[in-house]
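Hi all, long-time lurker, first post. I run a small reading group and we've been trying to get comfortable going from sequence to structure in the token notation. Rather than ask abstract questions, I figured I'd post a concrete chain and ask someone more experienced to write out its structure so we can walk through it together at our next meeting. Sequence below, copied exactly:
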Amino acid sequence: MQVHPRRIYPSAVAAIAAAMLLPSLAIVDAVAQTTYPQRPIRLIIGQSPGGASDTVGRIAAQKLGEYLGHSVLVDNRPGASGAIASDLVTRALPDGYTMLLGGASLVINAALSPERPLRLGKDFTPITLLAESSNVFLVHPSHPARTLRELIDFARARPGQVDYASPGTGSPQHLAGELLNVVAGIRMVHIPYKGSGPALADLLGGRVLVMSSTLPSAAAHIKSGRVRALAVTVAKRAPSLPDVPTVAEAGGFPDYEVATWQSLLFPGGTPKPFVDTIQSQAAKALFSPEVAARLRDQGYEPVASTPARFTAFLEAELAKWPKVIKAAGMKAE
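-- Answer (accepted) --
Happy to help. Here is the structure in token form:
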């Protein structure tokens, strides 16, 4: 075969790329055998400072840094529903010094955009589920439904005529409503807002009568009686609302569960010693009295799952949402 002097063939390109990658991997392996960490770790958050996930990330990062003996520095990279932050992490060197604060948008984005799948192990190395919070179905006090079952019956008798608000398209609260549509065989119509604040304002004003909300945003209004809570969307009743049943209890749907959650992930290929170190120290940090109390003040419960359990959780989420999104006819914006 005649070899063109100026052409680079695919096999040569692959060999060059592998040769360039080997030194980086060797460095990572060498560092994995030494004391870790040896310098500050960067935590990338795909939200502007002050938001709910940013607050949770900062609470965890501060205490985790104390246990690790090196700071965990927050780097906010908002935009594209968290895709900017996640892309940064997938491209980072898997050396244990770059992490992502990942939430439900991570799997929702993957379900909305099948051409950009979330590949566990290749794109990300799961570390731990940090904390989770429930969502809650609310109605205005003027609505006739006093239980979730009554809301379902009301909607079933009026297909396509019952609206429900959420903080935005593709949010866990939006999908909580769509999943209820699927399991209950009803057709409520989603009304997206730009955040919980505007949606709750319209619910309080009676301009919309049904809403799927974050629990922390709605808690004060529930306690004051300005809105009625019908059910929380996680598997267990929320400690702050012990009298409000779960959707599984109230609706008779045992597999129904939609949480708002925050987690830690490394780039794909990060060595196991780094993962185990961060997970073990994060567990200590999350269940320290100070951090646990601060998280609960934000409406979150600490979790600190092992990497294996967190991976299984992500796999279940990745399997669940494409079906719901397809049934709802949702598309990426």
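A couple of things your group might point at:
The beta strands are 41-45, 72-76, 98-103, 124-139, 163-166, 189-192, 210-214, 228-232, 259-267, 301-302.
The chain has twelve helices and ten strands.
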